Amino acid sequence: VTGAVKPAARDSELYCAGYIEQSPSYGGLEIVGGEQEQEKNSYGFGDIVYLNGGSQSGVRAGQEFAVVRPRGQFKSSFSQKRGSLGVFTQELGRVRVVDVKGEVSVAQIVHSCGDMMLLGDYLKPTEVRASPPAVAAPTEVNRFANPTGKQHGRIVLARDQRETVSLDQIVYIDLGAEDNVRAGDRLTVFRKPSRDRLVDLPQEIAPNGSGGFESRVFKGGKFSNDAQRAKDLNKGWRGQPIKTPEIKRTRPELPRKIVGEITVIGVQGRTATAVVTRVAQEIHTGDEVEVR
Prior knowledge:
Helix content is 4%, strand content 33%. It is mainly β. A hairpin with a 4-residue loop joins strand 14 and strand 15. The model has no long low-confidence stretch (mean pLDDT 88).
């Protein structure tokens, strides 16, 4: 539709992203069986499952529930926040109650996030979620944008055990309601320049000079074309070169390497769930983020 606002996240991200919840609470309703449990122990779209609550618990035919799987307390060495960030919880899909008994209900899986549902998975009331709008323009990341000085954190986890993520994929950050982060906030993803060498070599690729660089016949000179600048220009080819680590130690602060942008789609107490909406290159867990 011409003029329609494009959402930053699709339903597959909105309802399947998962979250790191600070204070989880469950009503005790869970999947306790399946119609075909003699043949299989996991369930997907269209399967019939049994719930441990019926009319005596207020369950009604037609009700829908979100299926979630809390995995346990989550901590991250990337985060400056101490202790647990909350309970990492997977979102698995949705079931609809089709028949109600006294203490048991029959439900059909009407939406699956991809992972199979298991006995013991919890049910929570469904909620309507709206995606923040995508930013129409500019489409390219400003790779040299200055810091905003606003809330600053890190990507501490990515969905599906990924360590490298790209466009439209889900990440979790250590900024949440306690940091005044809200759904729809856009955050720059960046890395600070490293003062370390990428490869721990005892010397540069080539020394400043060596008797082995010139031929014995033509004697073109004892200098390596791949060497660093000489420290003392008066010592000739025997002089010590300036090495890369020395330059990095004394240089002024360089611009950040901006690698992408994420948009928050869900906020918990200490964390938020976000979708990658722009990329300049691959994004890694541990990359820093800053509210735009």
